[in-house]
Amino acid sequence: MFILVSQITLEITERGVPDLMGVNSINNMASLGVRLALDDVTLTSGANMAVLARCHFDVIKLDKSLVAQISSECPSPEWLEGITALLQSSRLVVVAEGIETEQQFMTIRTANIQLAQGFYFSKPITAVEFIDYHRENNAKIKPAAQ
Asked: CA nearest 99: which of 127, 76, 126, 123?
């Protein structure tokens, strides 16, 4: 049973973090090897840091509302500096959701945010379409400079 547990990632929205009993259960899952992701992170209140401090998260997923702030008028929103510092001081993997433009993608990439998703890369597709997409585009994807 525990052989595949490391392949499971449980996503929890920030507003869905439960009471102490639930937090203990979440952390117990983490101790068994289940990866935990905090989804829809908005960085708009101190609640985010409290949630990150209470639960053992492996991944945080930045809400698309943050990414939408990246534009030619605002190429480097305030929150970006905080995420960069968090990346440098933790083992967290950060996913930027809602990438729609090349500028957003380049800004996220320059900030060393490890993963990104959004319409810039693809519209939602079926599993079969994904396999074809992956075959066609895998050679085009280059890792960010380290």
From this structure: 123
